[in-house]
Amino acid sequence: MKILIIRRDNIGDLILTTPLIASLAEKFNVKIDVLVNTYNQSVLENNPHIGRIHIYSKLHHRKHGQSALSVIIRRIKTYIDIRFARYDVAIIAREGFTKRQLHWAKISGAKRTIAFGNDASGSITDAIAKTQDKRHIVELLADLAKPLGAYSKPGPLELYVSEDELTSIAQKIAAPQNIPVYGLQISARKPLQQWQAEKFVELAHRISQREKCHFLLFWSPGSADNKEHPGDDEKAQRIMSACKDISITPVATNNLRELMAAMTLCDQILTSDGGALHIAAGVGVPVVAMFGNSDAWFWGPWGVPHETLEAPDRNVNLLSVDAVDERFIQLRRRVLAAE
Asked: What pTM was computed for the model?
């Protein structure tokens, strides 16, 4: 059984697909090949269930100095590699297929193509109808194994950080020992998911006054005025300037692997919905998650202790420090009680 999973979406989307990958690999005792993009591929490193990784390069994700022509040439090579791999099954692992994903399934020449969709193309041999049930996306994706007789209850998200990566980031950060370490992840791509810098500052001071602890500050690197990859360097600097009187370390992660490793050092993390939320869950850290214009029942933390806050008017800016602090305390108490 040669299986190709097509998941060339965002970082969190790929992480949320890892339980499906694991269940298929274990059911058929095979490695699962995947089509991903250059932006999210590193989350699959060290995953024992992964076989060949086919890379789709998006033009706007090309590295500095990389030409558009080189990206197109690499894409052609991916076409050829997938075509000649001779797959038995292609699975479009998303909540609804698009023409682009279907295009890649056709290129694979797979005997069977599995996807969600009520108006499925004739190219999809195994169409799974959408329902109105409120189910987490991980539970939904697990249904893609049903046409193969391989359905199982989905397990946790799977990210694999090596001992060398852990050692390297621990030495770089040098967080204090024997006290709780709390992560504050301050970035979110969508404006309605962004909590204000002054609220992070107030929350950090409240927690530090309540208990002896240390904070790790995470953010998307880069300046806010970068049109291609806007970041939160300025926001992080404002927070650090206002938190000089508490124990806090800015963690300027250069890549996803460093972010994954650094998050494993935390006892608990606060973040808005987004890729970082699923990285935290993927490395097994309890999460307090803030949701604005996205649905917590569908995108919430999977497989770890968590608290979710759904913001008034679907705008995280409207969440109070009191509300977030209350959930932060509740989660910490539950985790400690379970130990």
From this structure: 0.93
